[in-house]
Amino acid sequence: MKKQSKRNEKGFYPINGELYPSVTTILRIINKPAIYFWYAKHGTSKMLQVLDELTKPLRTKIMSRLGWSMLDTPTKIMKRSGNIGSEVHHAIDKYLKTGAKTKLKGEAKNAFNAFLIWEKEVDLKPVDTEVTVWSDELRYAGTLDFVGYINGELCIADWKTSSGIYPENALQLSAYREAFEERSQKTFAVPLTTAKKMYLVRLDKKTGKPQIKIFEDSPDLFKTFLAAKQIWEWQHK
Predict the structure, then answer these.
(1) Residue 232 in 3-state DSSP?
(2) Which is deepest, 49, 92, 138, 233, by most CB within 10 Å?
């Protein structure tokens, strides 16, 4: 399948002269209660750290530093996590295509090791990796991490270095599968409609252990994604 341009900073893919929103951009429309706790946790942690560091009893300085630190810290952590995710995705892609293991450090190394542990537990035969998929009919795009055979079954898979597995991950995979099917009807030897299993492989950055969730695709999953897309489009008129 022909590779297309990667997603830009605003979450859109340039496809044939047009901008298609990414699947992950669309799915941000879904409320995620866990993210509010995450923001509060890291913001409060930074607040306590700043209080320990300050020695001058200047209330305005304290409040100013606390306010900006609490707002800025979760954003910095999220950006760092995104960078780690990119490193790990590149390392996995290189490994699956060449067999070479990229030398990583810290949390990225842990996550990559988690993938290697899982890879030894299954029979993994990639057909394509890190491929841009899109739907001209429905006007969305995304990057499919893996399409191929897992234990002899045709599947798709997505690698995650996030702190958990969430329900909308199934919607993301369903959207990727539908887009890949549209793009590959004339080029892929086996119709992807036969691939109902969708693997979410979470690679824990802290423990270095994999967590696997297998979703079964269904028309209802894709309909739910389309409902989220319709709300996103309404909000972005």
Answers:
(1) helix
(2) 92
Look up tokens 């234990």; give the residue.
151
Domains of the chain (ranges; CATH) run: 20-235 (3.40.1350.10)
Characterize the bridge pairing of strands 18-21 and 197-203: unpaired
Dihedral pair phi/psi, residue 24, rounded to 5°: -65, -35
pLDDT digits over 94-103, tens only?
A: 999 999 999 9
92 vs 33, residue with greater confidence: 92
The length of the chain is: 237
Among all chains, which residue has been given the structure tokens 């491929």? 131
66-72 long-range contacts (CB < 8 A, ≥24 apart) are 69/43, 70/43, 70/44, 70/46, 71/43
What are the C-alpha distances in Å from 53 to residues 45, 47, 50, 65, 73? 13, 10, 5, 11, 16
In tens, the pLDDT along 170-197 reads: 999 999 999 988 876 645 555 566 677 9
Residues 124 and 151: their CA atoms lie apart, in Å, by 7
Model's pTM, two decimal places?
A: 0.76
CA distances from 128 to 31, 57, 88, 125, 155 (A): 32, 60, 17, 9, 11
